[in-house]
Amino acid sequence: xxxxxxxxxxxxxxxxxxxxxxxxxxxxxxxxxxxxxxxxxxxxxxxxxxxxxxxxxxxxxxxxxxxxxxxxxxxxxxxxxxxxxxxxxxxxxxxxxxxxxxxxxxxxxxxxxxxxxxxxxxxxxxxxxxxxxxxxxxxxxxxxxxxxxxxxxxxxxxxxxxxxxxxxxxxxxxxxxxxxxxxxxxxxxxxxxxxxxxxxxxxxxxxxxxxxxxxxxxxxxxxxxxxxxxxxxxxxxxxx
Amino acid sequence: xxxxxxxxxxxxxxxxxxxxxxxxxxxxxxxxxxxxxxxxxxxxxxxxxxxxxxxxxxxxxxxxxxxxxxxxxxxxxxxxxxxxxxxxxxxxxxxxxxxxxxxxxxxxxxxxxxxxxxxxxxxxxxxxxxxxxxxxxxxxxxxxxxxxxxxxxxxxxxxxxxxxxxxxxxxxxxxxxxxxxxxxxxxxxxxxxxxxxxxxxxxxxxxxxxxxxxxxxxxxxxxxxxxxxxxxx
Lengths: 240, 233
What we know:
The complex is a heterodimer of chains A (about 240) and B (about 230).
Chain A: E1 2-11, E2 14-24, E3 29-33, H1 40-47, E4 55-60, E5 63-64, H2 72-76, E6 79-82, H3 94-104, H4 110-123, H5 139-151, E7 157-161, H6 169-184, E8 188-192, H7 196-202, E9 205-210, E10 213-218, H8 220-225, H9 230-239
Helix pairs in contact in A: 3-4, 3-5, 5-6
Chain B: H1 2-17, H2 22-55, H3 65-78, H4 82-93, H5 100-125, H6 129-137, H7 142-172, H8 184-195, H9 199-227
């Protein structure tokens, strides 16, 4: 579904990605872990071109999206993204946050979008917040809404950029629950996270990134039980 | 005490009542407000467009030619006195135009636009980058993200400095006397030279300016409070 070939990204003279190759299949839940500065967030942000790669290719559903001629807005309609800082639109109510994109992009009319939004809100237990503004919600609630906002676009893949890193500890659980539910529903997911429990439980593959490349890749069971490279062993000994 | 009071009332009579002089202030005020109002609208329009021009970047992150044009405009306008700009507009660029008010509106509008552009640009930059990224990640175009997400939030940021700019603009129109328009300031000045008495006309004009700006300030504060509702703070 997503094929990444020899992906490079350089900021000024800082080489963040140094040749990432990977193939993400439909329905997979890829969890990306690694120390900070390893390039894992940049890798994720390259997948929907929020960062424009300096080299390499990304194919999505058979389309070369790194080609400058690609209509990236069209591609992004099929790739949901959830951010560390939620990034709900502060000027809009929760309902408008969710319905803005589907309505403005003419994928649904206003009523359809509201209906979709309400049923999605119900799924995450926040139906009564439809008319609230983001500033009235807790971090966990905001992140659940952010997930709903992406889902309202009916994406083929969901990208998560450290979705629980900005949350108070007691709110991490509620967001992970929603993500688990999403995983069970068969969504293709790429998740950058520090939640090793989530990686073990939900991931179909776990990637270890460091120094701008994927250093190790394995099933969760093998990944945590038999880490092969030294860097990963060292990393796991610190985080587990 | 009685003599002092009589003197004051005579001065007042001479400055405002005699020969229906109050009408001159009123006409002057009309000119002042007309120029300020239309120049403010023009300035806001130019400023918004120029701010967006200045913020435009190419796909590779470099400035566009529009951004350079915007920079040149802002540099020139901010680098020269507004009186001089008005004189240049009146005597050179639009020397065949007999409508002084129009010339003044254009001159002040173009002048104000440069300052408004920087205010709007700052307001847009103050909106968290994550808002734009979230909009773009949903598939909204650059323009849609600007229009529905960034600009509504930027308006809240720019309201106080924009109010400031409008107040400066309103008072700045006092220089239109240079191109023989009779605004409030010039009207007061003319009356002074007719009655040989400066106190009442000048203080009177000052009070009128002050009152109008006070009203403007109160209105802006109200608007700001209303727009801040979604902030919950």
